[in-house]
Structure formats: structure tokens, C-alpha cells
Amino acid sequence: MGIFFIDQFIEYLQFQRKFSPNTLIAYKKDLNEFVDFSRHQFEIEKPEEIKNDMIRSWVSSLIGLGLEAVTVKRKISSLRSFFRYLQKEKILELSPIRNMPKLKLAKKLPTIIGLDDMNSICDALPQNPSYTEALDYIIICILYGTGIRRAELISLTETNVDLAQRQIKVLGKRNKERIVPITLELAEQIHNFIEIKIKEGIISEPLLVTKKEDKLYPGYIYNVVKKTLTLQKVNGKRSPHTLRHTYATRLLQNGAELLSVKELLGHSSLASTQVYTHVNIEDLKKVYKKSHPKR
Predict the structure, then answer these.
(1) Domain boundaries, position 56
(2) Which stretches of the chain drop beneath a pLDDT of 70?
(3) Residue 243 and residue 142: Cα distance in Å, rounded?
(4) Considering its fold, how many domains does the chain have in total?
(5) What predicted TM-score, i.e. pTM, was given to this entire model?
(6) Active-site residue, from 166, 173, 178, 226
């Protein structure tokens, strides 16, 4: 793929734009898929040969495979960024994607876990838990209690946690730090987990590690959340982001301002946070339909 400058582009994103490892993986995957498709379908061998109709053909094939519009839109965005880079480096004069129409996305409301379900999950830690049971439990508690992202949870260190002030320091996207307050209950849960770590003789800079003191990885977090929500028979998507959605929705339902929720979530744009206002509107509609005498 060297002739297409994909590796150089990824290095540019990594060292100059400071993109996260997960984002770099997604960009590289998208670009390699496009180049493989174009080579197979159109026998191209260099970026200058890429034409707009080739990109349209690729997009049509993605839609034909049944990919969701949001995924296709992300892949198109990867191409746009790549071609801008090639223009910047004087490899291309014009971007072949410049006339691509934007895909319209159907608005999908995020899955929210019911309060009773979350209370059952948070009350489920057995007495004298094993280290792994305690680890899996605190993963759920922190995700639900702070709304932080999976990558932010993995990078959380013990020094980032201030139990006395009841707050954690989170390193978000683009290395942007933010302070997230935690409840007394969550502070006690984290304290109890650290006590179990000490009892097990586990010493680590990251707050959460395996019993062998290995750093957690995204798949571990995902599997813990999916297993927990499946056992609770939660409907809909069962992922770490579901807990983040639930956290944000609970805040708004209890009177938090949208701007405050934006800061707590680490969103760069208010538009990303506004989806939760739609969730609250849907809740109100359900109450209206159930309660209004002329329903």
C-alpha cells in the first residue's frame, strides 16, 4: 500500500494530529478496503488514477453489503481526510471525492438501561468476591457512574482518582483532560476495589488491571458489559457506550443543564450531546400517551 501513501497518512494523523490508536486503526482499515476494492474493480495502481465514479461504486457496494449509513458515512469521511492530505502533500491537485453527495442518516435514539435494571446490577456484587468478580463489577460501576468512554476507563490511573474530593481526572480525546465528579457511593466502591487489589498483592499504576497485572484492553471491557447486561436481560445494544448513554440521560432527567452534560461527557460539540434531549422527549410522549384522558 506504500504507493498510495496510506502509511504516511496514518503517521501524519498519529504524530501531527494526535489521533487515538482506535481512530488510526479505523482510518487504515477504511483506506485499505477502498484501495483493495479499486484495484480489483478498476485495476488502479496510484492515487492519481482514482475517479469520482470509482468512489461512488465503492459506496454502493458498501450499502449493498448492508452496512449502516453511519458506518458508510464514516468510511467516506476517512477518504475525504485522506485526499485532503494528498492535496496538502501536492500528490493530488484535486480531490476525486469533492462532488460526493452526503448520505442522510436516520436518527437513532441510543439504548437506555432502565433504573430498576441498573439498581439490580449495582447491587449484584457477592460477599467476599474474587478479584475478577470485583474487577468486572467496578468496571460497570465506573462506566455508569461517570459516563466515561472505554478508552478513558482503560487509561485511568490510581493517581487520577481523588476519593477525598470525590472526583476523577479523565484523559479524553486529543489528550484533553477533564474533571468528572463521582458520588459518595462510587467513591466507596472504588475504595473497596483498591483494598481488594492490595489484599491480592496487585500493584499497578492503572486503576484497573487483570489479576496477572496486565493492562485491560477494549475487548475485555466490552465483554464484561455485554455479559452483565445479558444476564440482566437488558434489551437493545449491550455495550460500554450504552452505559455512557444511560449516564447522560439520567443527568438530564434529573435536571442537569445540557452544557454541563456536554462538559462531563467530554464532547467537543453540543450537537453530540443534544441527542439525549430527544430521549427525554420520547419519555414525555410515553407519559402523555399513558396518562392523558383523550389518548
Answers:
(1) 2-88
(2) 1-2, 104-109, 277-295
(3) 9
(4) 2
(5) 0.64
(6) 173
